[in-house]
Amino acid sequence: MQKIICTNDFMDDYTYVEFEVFTSCNKSCDYCYNLLQHPKRFHNTYDGLISILDRIMQSDNKRVVIGMIGGEPFIHKRFNDVVNHIYDNCDPMHKLQTFTHGDHKPAFHKNRIDNLAKFGDRVKLTTSIHYDYIDYDNFAKNLEYTDSKLKYNVLSTMVGDNIADRIDLLDDLMARTKNTTLHLFVDDREEQDYIQLLKRYNQYQTIMSRYTERMDNYYLVDEKKIPWNVAKMQIIKDNGFVFTGRKCTPTYYEVMQDGSVYQECNRGCLGNVYDSNELFNVRSFPCDIHRCPPNLSKIYVEKTDT
User: Fold this and answer.
1) CATH number at residue 190
2) Residue 135: which pLDDT band, with cuts at 50, 70 and 90?
3) 269: helix, strand or coil
4) Which of 70, 116, 177, 267 has a CA positioned 20 to 30 A from the CA of residue 37?
């Protein structure tokens, strides 16, 4: 295995630039990564959000997906104003991606979706399902409405030990929708036992094989397009759970509240959006880490001879 490219229709040939709207959420899921990273909630001001957005949109690279994360972005009081500002000021090449837990009153959810829908095929919504913390009827209705309005709608679920017990809910949601694809996140960051990892992924691959044709992410493994759930096992078996490369093309960045920009894979600070318009220009470069987690939603790694 010499080359891995993670690919999907919305992200291909684009750079993903992510920033947090705020960390507030109207749920308190005990496994939330956001709570672990931000024990104290923060709330960006509207002017602060607009300042960051304008700098992202002014960068030289116009093939950028602007990623708005939370917290729960939908509950920001000026969410629609922020979306409108992007729509009115972005380049025709820009795209928008945002996220929600999807468990809102249907009228509220419809308001947010209708405003996003004006972007057409330049917007993508990822809805995370939290099985133990939702009003399922509202969630299912909201997912159906989103599916009817947005071309790119992703249902994201943690693939954990309880997924087999909730597979009926996942089956129901996929049966209700037509355009919705799946992003399956396996939280393998703490697992050190390779044999246990292999067993877990084998179990999950078996469960998820029913959805192979509706995966959001695919991998090009040595130029062959393989669905996420199938490629994951091949990557693990061939590379011991991580893929090690010597050349990387970074396409995934995070912008902090102060404008500092980090490369997502190794957390290296690359500069500040207020100082440069060139930070998101994609270039390949030698990597000193040589360890690439394949869970990243956008990754291009190539092995070269030493």
Assistant:
1) 3.20.20.70
2) very high
3) strand
4) 116
